[in-house]
Amino acid sequence: MNKTFRTSNYTTFTIFEPKERLIFKLPYYPDRIVHHAIMNILEPIFVSTFINNTYSCIKGRGIHSAANAVKHALKDINNTTYCLKLDITKFYPSINHDILKLLLRKKFKDNNLLYLLDEIIESTDGVPIGNYLSQHLANFYLTYFDHWIKENKEVKYYFRYCDDLIILSKNKQYLHQLLFDIKQYLNINLKLKIKDNYQIFPVSKRGIDFVGYVFYHTHVLLRKSIKQNFKKAVKKNKNKKSIASYKGWAIHCNSKNLLKKLLDE
């Protein structure tokens, strides 16, 4: 209320799985309490702006919800022949503070709230991975892009998990044109860039690697790296909680033979 809150100093550490990332950490008091207090109010407002096929860090819309949605879409075989798969270069560190604050001002008019959000946003470059508030701000940063995809571009089969995006279509040339338009939109409106490893491919030939699974029209497999880690966990006889976690991944795809082989040995 007195505008005296200041973000504490961050501590950082690096994780290497599933990929190398710098993680930021704030003390429980006062910062994490403040972030949770903010999200107690803002979370339902943020969620109300998200399209149905945005996932990650949303209650009831995690990995398995995303996987089920893709499975359902692939039942429409004729209109899901090809897949455009892409992700954003250094998404969290690349979030532009001025654009993020402008987007927040489109949604919120309370000056005290905006002051507090500005202070947290300006506490470090980009949006720090590890802050409780960051995952929601990152989702919100892309929400108007999501609406542009669904409403302006009229894309039927679009799915986003954080900064991993897939779009399904029956027309390969259409996906190439859409990729060009997406690059333009993200660069002009959000100052973001697409990684060069984007792919447009027939689903029947390669399968869609997304949220830990590889999706085909006829079946779903575990991602190779997860399957390998599952095997290692069983072989090393790791704790039951770890093995149960991998089993939880496996039961949501066509892994009957894998489970039998690993767990019956």
Task: List the topology elements.
Elements (H helix, E strand, L loop, with lengths): L10 E5 L5 E5 L2 H22 L4 E2 L7 H11 L8 E6 L3 H4 L2 H11 L3 H11 L10 H10 L1 H10 L4 E5 L2 E6 L2 H19 L8 E4 H4 L1 E3 L2 E3 L4 E3 L1 H12 L4 H11 L5 H8 L2
Parallel strand pairs: 3-5
Antiparallel strand pairs: 1-2, 4-6, 4-7, 5-6, 8-9, 9-10
Helix pairs in contact: 1-6, 4-5, 10-11
CA radius of gyration: 20 Å
Number of helices: 12
Structural class: alpha+beta
Largest β-sheet summary: 5 strands, mixed
* Strand line-up across the major sheet: 3-5-6-4-7
What distance lies between the first and last C-alpha atoms, to the nearest angstrom?
62 Å
Q: Which H/E pattern describes the elements?
A: EEHEHEHHHHHEEHEHEEEHHH
Please provide a written account of the structure.
The protein has helices at 28-49, 63-73, 91-94, 97-107, 111-121, 132-141, 143-152, 172-190, 203-206, 224-235, 240-250, 256-263; strands at 11-15, 21-25, 54-55, 82-87, 157-161, 164-169, 199-202, 208-210, 213-215, 220-222. The mean pLDDT is 92. Strands 3-5-6-4-7 form a 5-stranded mixed β-sheet, sandwiched between helices. The chain has a 3-stranded antiparallel β-sheet with strand order 8-9-10. With 265 residues, it is α+β, with helices and mostly antiparallel strands. The N and C termini lie far apart (62 Å). Helix 4 (97-107) runs antiparallel to helix 5 (111-121).
